Amino acid sequence: MDKLLLHVGPTTIKEDVLVAGLENNVGFTSKEFVEALAYSLKGLRYVMGASKNYQPLIIPGGGTSAMESVTSLLKPNDKILVVSNGVFGDRWEQIFKRYPVNVKVLRPSPGDYVKPGEVEEEVRKSEYKLVALTHVETSTGVREPVKDVINKIRKYVELIVVDGVSSVGAEEVKAEEWNVDVYLTASQKALGSAAGLGLLLLSPKALSILDSQNSIAGYYLDLRNWLPVMRGAEEGKAAYFATPPVHVILQLAEAFRLIEKEGIENRIKRHTMVASAIRAGLEALGLEIVARRPESYSNTVTGVILKVADPQKVLAGTVNEGVEFAPGVHPAFKYFRIGHMGWVTPNDAIIAISVIERTLRKLGEPIRFGEGVKAVEEVLFSAR
């Protein structure tokens, strides 16, 4: 039986994207690779809403390597404010605490988000070099209103960095219009490509800092070392710092081609529709969602709280039914997570809720059996 992957990343990969990585005899100086890298850099500007004033970079690793590379913009004793809505927001703190900088963290109660006014209050009290935000918290599915936060704090801080690992390609992102200094993401989530790449977009201000000062960054993740490779590719020239994951970048270029074909606005609408349908189905079943406030629901991740059933047994049961969901990772909840991003379709929403209904009934979770799929269908019908 074919399995439907509704994990929080990696997500399902289209066959065209997979096949793009099967090219043989392609090296990092090959014309095919240089063109794929240049196209991917252009695609990153497109999905993040930026002009050529912003510099994209694609580095090996993933979301965490992109996050740690932000140390390229920092000096010893810089003050950093982390706005964390969960486990992956906390990762900013874990990264920065390994370097000689000063870090403070703002946190809400579990399932909630830090309000824009709270961030403003903090940055007005103390001078911070950098504020790190998480657009969508993967552990809870909570979306931070980053545009509203930026509007309130922009004049008080030098650098604003947004982790868009679980948002870019599925949520509205306008890095240049919102005046973000670094927007970062990864290849394996809403962009629908293979895992293995960290992607960043830097503002002119961030670039000027990169060009003008030494930093606390290490060697491999120092963006100064990768910048000539990116600039070279956009000029049609091969450049070398370290061996890039050539075939993963070939796949990413194909993913960007398909995204451009769909159109980013249409892609966001599709994600919004599928996410709304899934949550309607869960609520119709009588299940509680981890994200406490509807305005913070995301287009990409939904956490589902369980009263009776063991989450691990739920995951095992749904896999037996042909759908793989993600385990919960936040210690405050007994839950599992649904990833609805990338190439997800309206029919996937129907399948997901149908499998959840049957599995939870078998495991004795109190639900309104049969109501979930009906609610999904109503949302999808109304959206057409």
From TrEMBL:
This is Serine-pyruvate aminotransferase (AgxT). InterPro entries: Aminotrans_V_dom (IPR000192), Aminotrans_V_PyrdxlP_BS (IPR020578), PyrdxlP-dep_Trfase (IPR015424), PyrdxlP-dep_Trfase_major (IPR015421), PyrdxlP-dep_Trfase_small (IPR015422), SP_NH2Trfase/AEP_transaminase (IPR024169). It is an enzyme of class 2 (transferase). The keyword Transferase applies. Ca(2+) 3 binds at residue 288. Keywords: Aminotransferase, Calcium, Metal-binding, Pyridoxal phosphate, Transferase. Its cofactor is pyridoxal 5'-phosphate. It comes from Saccharolobus solfataricus (strain ATCC 35092 / DSM 1617 / JCM 11322 / P2) (Sulfolobus solfataricus). One of its GO terms (biological process) is glycine biosynthetic process, by transamination of glyoxylate. It holds the Pfam family Aminotran_5. The modification N6-(pyridoxal phosphate)lysine (covalent) is found at residue 189. Ca(2+) 1 binds at residues 16, 23. GO terms for cellular component: peroxisome. Belongs to the class-V pyridoxal-phosphate-dependent aminotransferase family. Residues 29-332 form the Aminotransferase class V domain. Pyridoxal 5'-phosphate binds at residues 63-64, 138, 166, 188, 240, 243.
